């Protein structure tokens, strides 16, 4: 069965690019527009990996990370955060909130697939 | 084999435009004295999102500008810097530049790089104020922070090390490949680095492909890295740091310097190896790959290869482009569809409506008792067709806020230019109208708003003298009325001056008389060559414009009206049909021809008595309707037809009204009221005077749609 990835980003173009790339590689993709939306969708679906932007309206990626880690079925689901190169402080916060790893923005489709493959195959 | 990132450009463009508009709206609503953190966050997010997209899709010019914006906004929202109105101005200008850059990438104009550079510089100045004012830059020792996430032991060191003088100079050894780099970008890079501190070129002549630089600077490693990453492919970039002597001197004496340094160096090298990869995992975190650390620090050949391909070519596996054609997710609540598809659908529905009408007409001729089922079926078909038509038409409908949202900026810029205080109120932004109308209404409306601001609202001194609040108000409102939509621009300004307008009109050779109603006098300002402004400003009023506004509105099948009271204000109303594709019309017969008269122009229809019809020598015939003499338009004469009746009192007169002028149109008979689908005559045949379009009737015949406004106007000219 195809693995499901929850892609969270408030930017529709990035979301579409991510979704297109991942679907092309055979993953199921669920899109969410912000943390709040993602949290609701995470509750409705079985997700194998979460890919989240940090800076989003309503609920940011860090809060989402924290709340997801509080859910029993998301304790061990890999969560990757998308961050900008200079955000080393953000990486530290992400780690604290329970992120599995980070991916630097901007990224190209190959790199995205490479990382995802490393984590969930 | 490459994923074409271009396929995402369009959505990125649209998204960025929306974000820019949102940013602008937030900026305009921002209270400089006590800025709302939510607003600042929203503005920051908009810049951040555009930057992310621009970076991903390779629009570097936009990345640079949004990066500057983002940096400054970040400081503002963190309260490290106070918002000032100059900043808001700079932000707005930056937004304009990004808009131009966006247009450039869309292949439509473009931004002036000089202007962009100037605004970048301006933003930079604001950003730098903070560093100069001595307030602390969060950390000029990023190495330490970065290391903190990986090596727990460093955290312990951090506290002591961060005491290091903020202004410490760091020596950076920068290494990158010059291959594939243009001389211009190299030069650009050197000059950028030179600004950061002392630069030394240590390139070894034998390997002149590799550029080696030594930079001594107070800037953080991140800043340097970022600056370089804009120009140099990060995959080929290496930066190593070495704490300069001055920093070591300033470091607390009780710390083992060597340890600090080696740990820092170690961590920094590692972190940048990871940065080269563009990702990393936190060891020990949930679900991290077991080999996370190894893989992250030792790039595998395959990942190395991908890195080199990075940013220019994107090489996904072959399946990706074939498999997933559809990119729209079922999860999202709206989809983007090209306007052509919608228009095609509207056209098809139009055809369906015509076919349905034809069937209905044929079916009406058979005996309803025998064909009862056919009749009930036809009834249902009619209802379904109407519902379908309505819902398809609603796809093209957009809220007028799309147009209204541009005016806060227009008013703000103009008001400050004219030294007036003006508040813009909008009412009924949610009112929907056809997308085609939305696009066309923007220009005339802009003109009206500017005109209200320039000629309507007075300067504060005058307002106070007149007992009004110093701040003027311009209200934009939109609402439905009957089958049309009304858009009003009203101001609480000086109002129109009847005497002045009459005087001016006489001066310009426009025919006037004292007996004209106020309504007629106000309409004079829409005459070509009319301007009441005492001074011609660059804002509005070159004598061209208002007449163009009127023409544009009429071109959309709309009407314009003015109400005004001297000293109190002016209200200009634009009345538009709800859509351009369908028209409510009255069908009239002349001989064997059928014509459609748009319902909006019709006041009444009547059968005149012979005594009321008079012939005025040289001016044709007129008819007396309720004490008023109206010129008669004989349709059969205009279109050279053979009518069934030639004596006017035996036929029907349809009284038309436009712009306060009336005329009576003589036809054989009234046939009925229809909703007709407008077909362009111009694109199918050619333009015909007095005809605005055509439609296909239920019986399959073509009927012409009359240009009522034109007919009335030409009858006025004849009788004048």
Report what the structure shows.
The complex is a heterodimer of chains A (121) and B (720). Chain A is of the alpha/beta class. Chain A has one domain (4-120): Rossmann fold. Chain A contains five helices and five strands, in the order βαβαβαβαβα. Chain A has helices spanning 12-24, 35-44, 61-70, 88-97, 109-120, and strands at residues 4-8, 28-32, 49-53, 79-84, 101-105. In chain A, strands 2-1-3-4-5 form a five-stranded parallel sheet, sandwiched between helices. By secondary structure, chain B is α+β, with helices and mostly antiparallel strands. Chain B folds into five domains: 5-135, HPT domain (Four Helix Bundle (Hemerythrin (Met), subunit A)), CATH 1.20.120.160; 142-309, Alpha-Beta Plaits; 339-396, Helix Hairpins (Orthogonal Bundle), CATH 1.10.287; 398-577, Heat Shock Protein 90 (2-Layer Sandwich); 582-719, SH3 type barrels (Roll), CATH 2.30.30.40. Chain B is 46% helix and 21% strand. Chain B contains 26 helices and 23 strands. In chain B, the strands form five sheets. Chain B has a six-stranded mixed sheet with strand order 15-19-20-18-17-16. In chain B, strands 7-9-10-12-11 form a five-stranded mixed sheet. A five-stranded mixed sheet of chain B has the order 21-13-14-23-22. The N and C termini of chain B lie far apart (73 Å). The relative contact order of chain B is 0.05. Mean pLDDT of chain B is 75; it is low at 133-167, 243-272, 292-332 and 534-544. The interface between A and B is large, with 60 and 66 residues. Strand 5 of chain A pairs antiparallel with strand 5 (279-281) of chain B.
Keyword list:
heterodimer, A: 121 residues, alpha/beta, five-stranded parallel beta sheet, 45% helix, B: 720 residues, Four Helix Bundle (Hemerythrin (Met), subunit A), Alpha-Beta Plaits, Helix Hairpins, six-stranded mixed beta sheet
């Amino acid at each position: 069965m195809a693995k499901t990835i929850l892609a969270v980003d408030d930017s529709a173009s990035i979301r579409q690019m991510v979704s297109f790339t991942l679907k092309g590689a055979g993953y199921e993709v669920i899109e969410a527009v912000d943390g709040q939306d993602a949290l609701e969708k995470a509750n409705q679906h079985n997700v194998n990996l979460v890919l989240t932007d940090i800076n989003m309206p309503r609920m940011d990626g860090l809060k989402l990370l924290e709340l997801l880690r509080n859910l029993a079925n998301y304790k061990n689901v890999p969560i990757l955060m998308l961050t900008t190169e200079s955000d080393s402080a953000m990486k530290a916060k992400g780690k604290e909130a329970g992120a599995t790893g980070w991916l630097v923005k901007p990224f190209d489709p190959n790199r995205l697939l490479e990382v995802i493959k490393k984590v969930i195959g | 084999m490459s994923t074409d990132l271009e396929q995402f450009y369009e959505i990125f463009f649209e998204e960025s435009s929306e974000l820019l508009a949102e940013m602008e709206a937030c900026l305009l609503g921002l209270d400089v004295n006590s800025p709302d953190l939510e607003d600042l966050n929203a503005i920051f997010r908009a810049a951040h999102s555009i930057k992310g997209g621009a970076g991903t899709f390779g629009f570097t010019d936009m990345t640079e500008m949004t990066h500057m914006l983002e940096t400054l906004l970040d400081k503002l929202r963190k309260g490290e810097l106070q918002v000032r109105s100059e900043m808001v101005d700079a932000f707005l200008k930056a937004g304009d530049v990004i808009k131009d850059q966006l247009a450039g990438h869309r292949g439509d104009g473009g931004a002036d790089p000089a202007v962009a550079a100037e605004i970048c510089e301006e933003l930079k100045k604001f950003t730098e104020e903070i560093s100069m004012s001595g307030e602390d830059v969060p950390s000029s020792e990023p190495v330490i922070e970065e290391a903190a996430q990986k090596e727990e032991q460093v955290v312990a060191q951090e506290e002591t090390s961060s005491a290091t003088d903020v202004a410490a100079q760091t020596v950076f050894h920068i290494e990158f490949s010059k291959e594939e780099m243009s001389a211009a970008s190299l030069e650009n890079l050197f000059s950028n680095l030179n600004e950061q501190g002392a630069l030394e070129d240590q390139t070894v002549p034998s390997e002149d492909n590799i550029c080696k630089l030594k930079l001594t600077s107070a800037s953080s490693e991140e800043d340097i890295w970022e600056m370089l990453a804009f120009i140099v492919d990060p995959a080929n970039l290496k930066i190593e740091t070495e704490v300069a002597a001055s920093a070591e001197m300033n470091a607390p004496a009780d710390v083992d310097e060597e340890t600090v340094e080696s740990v820092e160096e170690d961590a920094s090298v590692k972190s940048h190896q990871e940065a080269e990869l563009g990702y990393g995992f936190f060891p020990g975190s949930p679900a991290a790959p077991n080999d996370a650390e190894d893989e992250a620090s030792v790039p595998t050949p395959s990942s190395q290869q991908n890195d080199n391909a990075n940013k220019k070519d994107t090489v996904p596996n072959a399946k990706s482009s074939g498999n997933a054609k559809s990119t729209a997710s079922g999860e999202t609540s709206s989809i983007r569809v090209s306007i052509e598809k919608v228009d095609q659908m509207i056209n098809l529905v139009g055809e369906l409506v015509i076919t349905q009408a034809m069937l209905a007409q044929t079916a009406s001729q058979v005996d309803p008792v025998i064909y009862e089922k056919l009749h009930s079926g036809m009834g249902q078909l009619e209802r379904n067709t109407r519902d379908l038509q309505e819902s398809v038409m609603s796809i093209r409908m957009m809220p007028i806020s799309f147009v209204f949202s541009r005016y806060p900026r227009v008013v703000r810029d103009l008001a400050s230019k004219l030294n007036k205080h003006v508040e813009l109120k909008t009412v009924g932004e949610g009112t929907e109208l056809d997308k085609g109308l939305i696009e066309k209404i923007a220009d005339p409306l802009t003109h009206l708003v500017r005109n209200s601001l320039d000629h309507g609202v007075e300067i504060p001194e005058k307002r106070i003298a007149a007992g009004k609040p110093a701040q003027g108000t311009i209200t934009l409102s939109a609402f439905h009325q009957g089958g049309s939509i009304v858009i009003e621009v009203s101001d609480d300004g000086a109002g129109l001056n009847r005497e002045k307008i009459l005087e001016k009109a006489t001066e310009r050779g426009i025919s006037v008389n004292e007996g004209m109603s106020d309504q007629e006098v106000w309409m004079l300002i829409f005459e070509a060559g009319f301007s009441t402004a005492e001074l011609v400003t660059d804002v509005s009023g070159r004598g061209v414009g208002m007449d163009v506004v009127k023409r544009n509105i009429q071109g959309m099948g709309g009407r314009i009206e003015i109400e005004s009271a001297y000293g109190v204000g002016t209200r200009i109303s634009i009345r538009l049909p709800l859509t351009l594709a369908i028209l409510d019309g009255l069908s009239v017969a002349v001989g064997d021809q059928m014509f459609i008269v748009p319902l909006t122009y019709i006041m009444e229809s009547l059968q005149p008595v012979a005594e009321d019809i008079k012939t005025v020598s040289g001016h044709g015939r007129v008819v007396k309707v309720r004490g008023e003499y109206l010129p008669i338009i004989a349709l059969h004469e205009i279109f050279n037809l053979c009518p069934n009746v030639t004596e006017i009192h035996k036929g029907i007169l349809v009284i038309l009204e436009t712009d306060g002028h009336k005329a009576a149109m003589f036809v054989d008979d009234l046939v009925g009221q229809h909703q007709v689908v407008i077909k362009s005559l111009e694109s199918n045949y050619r333009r015909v005077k007095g005809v605005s379009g055509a439609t296909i009737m239920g019986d399959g015949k073509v009927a012409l749609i009359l240009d009522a406004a034109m007919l009335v106007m030409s009858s006025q000219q004849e009788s004048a």
